[in-house]
Protein 1
Amino acid sequence: MDTVMADSPATKLNIKPSKLKTDVAVKLVNVNKWYGEFHVLRDINLAVKGGEKIVICGPSGSGKSTMIRCVNRLEEHQQGQIVVDGVELTNDLKKIDEVRREVGMVFQHFNLFPHLTVLENCTLAPLWVRKIPKKQAEEIAMHYLTRVKIPQQALKYPGQLSGGQQQRVAIARALCMAPKIMLFDEPTSALDPEMVKEVLDTMVGLAEEGMTMLVVTHEMGFARQVADRVIFMDAGQIIEMNTPNEFFSHPQHERTKLFLSQILH
Amino acid sequence: MTMAEGDLAVAELTFVRGAMLDSKPPPASMRGTVGWLRENLLSSPFNIALTIIIALLLAWIIPDLLKFLIFDAVWTGADRDACLEGVQHRTIGACWPFVWERWPYFVYGSYPGPERWRVDLFFVMLAVGVVWLLWLRAPRRDFGAIYFFIVLPISAFILLTGWRAIGLEPVDTVLWGGILVTIVVSWVGIVVSLPIGILLALGRRSHMPAVRLFSVTFIEFVRGVPLVTVLFMASVMLPLFVPEQYSPDKLLRALVGIALFASAYMAEVVRAGLQAIPKGQFEGAMAVGLPYSKMMRLIILPQALKITIPNIVNTYIGLFKDTTLVFIVGIFDFLHTVDVSRIDPKWATPVTSTTGYAVAAIFYLIFCYAMSRYARATEARLAHSDKR
């Protein structure tokens, strides 16, 4: 990874991830959310320090995706407090835009813009949100595309790429906004088995550089390798939270044990 | 292994491929003219039957059509005598001299003769604008857009209605007619209905109840009444309520009526496109920090409009032909000028009406087919991002 970066012309650009303004990157205090009558998040309390990597796992419908989607307000919470790098998320659209500028997100189904080329996907937000000049935005985009190892695909359309390549473009697209925090919502779940590793490798590289990451995934190998803490969720609540070592070797809660026994063969 | 590898070890339990198979060209029956005929015309008994029926149908219609329009047609003459069977002692086809003489009326209506160059100039300016905007490799298309949407409407208005200060004699819109009116009405309808339709469609999906209620009410109300009613209300009822001097021009009223009518339909077309855009596109755009207006302009609308191009053009074609309904409020559009001319005693013959309507049919066919072809080309061009 280092050699790739040294060779890329963009090293001259002095691209660094933005620094967090506060020590606590993300803070959730007594967060509750309902879909109609359905209580999907129940008293969620979580503080993520700058540079911390959190892996969140749990059965489907446990609220793990909903929780991280609340962090950039793709979902609205009804009770409690969510503070992202010192900015509290309320109905204030300015605050929401401010948070979204600083928080990158990678989705299960990539959500690339199919009518734009890979390069345009990456430069769009820097151009229109950060108001960076086009030439510079393209240099930044090429820098990150080089980092996810697909600079040669820059002028293709997303539909022409494989799933793994698309997901790496999605990661590059998020990084082009120089986010302070990255959210990953099951980034490898929709990929063919052959493609999973290339995406995980990219995420590991990102983690090694000190990015603050919240990752919803069932890739337990990734959790072991990268996570500072692993969170297990079920029925809208945090059931157990621990370091990866303790979490996998000595799960405490019965529900956690059952879950782990079912996914680790 | 004793068998050829191509047999893929049907009879054996284990198999390991020795040499990979090369790609071979398809058999001759799939290629060339023969292949095309097989594939498209003769692929199944049903297809063969269809091919024969359509061929018979064409053989039945086309000779008669050509006979009427060309071989039996009368090409010269001064009045109805040229096109009368009794005088010519033969079957008579189209009466073209009627069209030659009436053509200026078909184009300009009653627009005063010495001022007709202004209409010609307008047609040229409009053609320049249309080509500039639609020809994708034209230079400075941004200027083209400014020209088409700002410069052209203003200058066309001054040019056609007149302005004494710069020496253009005012021409009352009552005198306008023919192709001029058809083009003006459909051009205004086409240019105005898309932006208003987009706004209404976005309004209908808005989270703000007041905006949504307004959009829904407008769309459902306008779609719920026939265009003829809208036009009739605008030209007959409005003057009853508004004093004469404040009552807007008759053509203008029809223009507004048609533009709003088309907008309501366009809104539903655009809404269908918006609904087809997956939720992930909205989320992807929001997650990179795009505010609502930019998300719509850069991500959602380009995709939504792309998939609705066939429907948008369908609405445009419908609109273009709906402009003929302005005759109901006494405006002389192209079809109405033809209709009036065909009963002119000077040209009263058994074939005059047919000739007039044939001209109208050809005129509308050319314009609608051109729109349809351009839309197809645009679809093909935009399909690149769908390549898999």
Protein 2
Amino acid sequence: MSIAYGRISPWATARVLVQLAWARTFSVTLVVGLIGLLLLPVLFALAFASRGSLSGDPVAFLVQRYDSLVCGLAMPLIALLLGTSAFSAETDDGTLLYLVTTTTPRWWIACVRVMYAAMVTGLLSAFAVWSTGAIAADGSNPEHVTTAFTVAVLFGGATYAALFTALALLTRRALVAGLVYVLFWEGALSRTFPALHYLSVRQWTLAVASSLTDSSEKALQDGPSLTASVIGAVVVVVLSVYVGGRRLQRPRMQR
Amino acid sequence: MSAVPTSDAPMPLVFDRASHWYGDVVAVNDVTCSIDAGITGLLGPNGAGKSTMLQMAAGLLAPSSGTVRVYGESPLDNPSIFRKVALVPEREALPSMLSARAFVEARAVLLGLRDPKLAALRALTTVEMDTVADRTVGGFSKGMRQRTKLAAALVHEPTLLLLDEPFNGLDPRQRLHMMRLLEERARDGTAVLLSSHILEEIEGVASRILVMLSGRLAASGDHRTLRRMMTDRPHTVRIRSTNDRALASALLSSPTVMGVDIDADALMVRTADYTGFAHHVGVVAQRASITLLEVQPTDESLEHVFAYLVAR
């Protein structure tokens, strides 16, 4: 009996690629790590809310926490864990071979993995933003700051996820390289030197938030323009999918 | 060694002066051969370049020089060849949280099969894994993993099957079953290239054997030719006895012995006919009333055998 081929179904292949990524990503350690990252801004919000009227301006509080704890810590680290874990594990144990010895286009494999990491990162980061805002501002949305940051982390999460997914295919030490990038480039250098704002995913994220809120907090005023940020993010995502797809043509195999 | 074919019908797999090196290390060196329908064994010690050959055939590695053709096409950057080609890697890792069925079905979907469930079931049945198909592969034995890997490779019924050390971890019954399976596919016109570092593993199943050593194609032929080359080569045998000098003198008159060296505590005997010598040494020792304490071939490792084949 001969085998019948159909068209490669984008939906069916995406489902399988996500299923395989999830099987490689999910672990108790990962879940604990994610919960820890998500709880951090929420705990600050609880502390803020518990002080009642002594707490001060909720907008200033939220912008500072969203900037430092969500955009600067939780979102990039969640993207790093989700973006690198599947491809890194598959490269290390050789199971990547089962993906690349198929007729599914390589760019599509890279694209689906980016979408998977982007979606989960965006949703988890948005949850952190939303729950922090709900607690600290008592359910209100002052100066649209929570809505602005919810949209911004969906945007920033996708960019980080693309970057780290490609990184997992480019280097054996993607997690370390990603950590160095988040801590030194995003955390120190790009905040110190204004010229580097144009090359910082965190600053692009803040630029998106700034465009959607009426707040005039300082953290939202120093970044690049919205246009530059969107162009930068699109370039990163497209380049990551392209580089990832190229890399999957001849993947790095452990011997 | 087959010459590179010149007819119009494309061969399943052709290496034409193909080499591959990793930095300064030459993994495959100027190999020319072609693989037709039937089972071809790729024999060589670890590090001989067998896996590199298979990865080049699957387009996962580019030749540093020379060419590799699969059905007349370059396999590089050409995923469509995987409609006809499957590679079973040596490493046994599989996504441990998935069931065997989910894993094989995932492959079927990624290969674009119209009915992935049916194709997966058929492949799992072929390798006798259908009864445990819903168990997660994390709990599988080595043999079960090998068979799951084979099912994942057979799911689209490829016509060129590349297997890297496929018999690792299989018990004798499973090994026999896999041999039968590969023979059946070969009879149906599939070209099977399987690598191994153990001659006995592939001589029973492969109609043709390619011997690799240090990246070079050292010899090729059917298993009888290779077996003869390997057993008729000069051997050095270390012998300890109750009277080494008397035994050396007696052995020198034997037609199977080429020379004898006397070491401090043993004799080193060189022979071109190992089988004849093995029979003769006992007779000689018995006639001279000498007790043999140890008879040990010194160069029986596969590397020695292959080194001899290369030096011929």
